[in-house]
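Handout, page 2. Input:
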Amino acid sequence: MKQPNLLENKIQITFKDKRLLSNIFIHRSYLNENKGLKLQSNEKLEFLGDSVLSLITSIYLYKTYQNLEEGDYTDIKSAIVRTESLATSARTLDLGSYLCLSHGEEKGVGRKNTNILADCFEALIGAVFLDQGFDRTYNFVNKHLFADRLDHIVKNKLYLSPKSHLQETAQSRFHTLPVYQVVKQVGPDHKKRFTIKVFINAKPFGLAIGMSKKDAEENAAKITLDMLK
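Output:
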């Protein structure tokens, strides 16, 4: 387990409150085995970091992509702050190596756990905000989360659902809308499975199964997008 102060060099931020820095990496499971520890778990910092990240993302999108609609902002925001995205940033900074975990979490490969890493990254954001202020936190998030990733999401419209993305693609390339046809439905009413096929200009494309028509359509749209690449 690395000492938290080693992270300061990597992110080029020197914490005034070293206890706050240590607190970032205290997982609740660790406290269960170390009852006398005066530090709290990182859950409160994670809660704060989540709120600060939401505000920073909203401001960044408003300033950077003024031609987009409010609904686009919501979808882009969901794409960039999702658990997997935060965990990727945490892995880049090697946050897992600083974590204080229980023996059980250690054996369960907790240092590589996507949810634990995402929570830790949010705790880091919360700690930077408390220790360094909003502007420093904004720059930190921009550098370690947004970077080229957010531009890639926006330019390639990865924030759109597969159905929405396919609709735009079909209109742009074929000047028509995709048609979704139910090929088969099996099972009782409370547990049906739908098989749906996509057609564009009467030409068949993706075929997929889902537990609802919506899920099947989204799955078929995703397959169709892959076919059109």
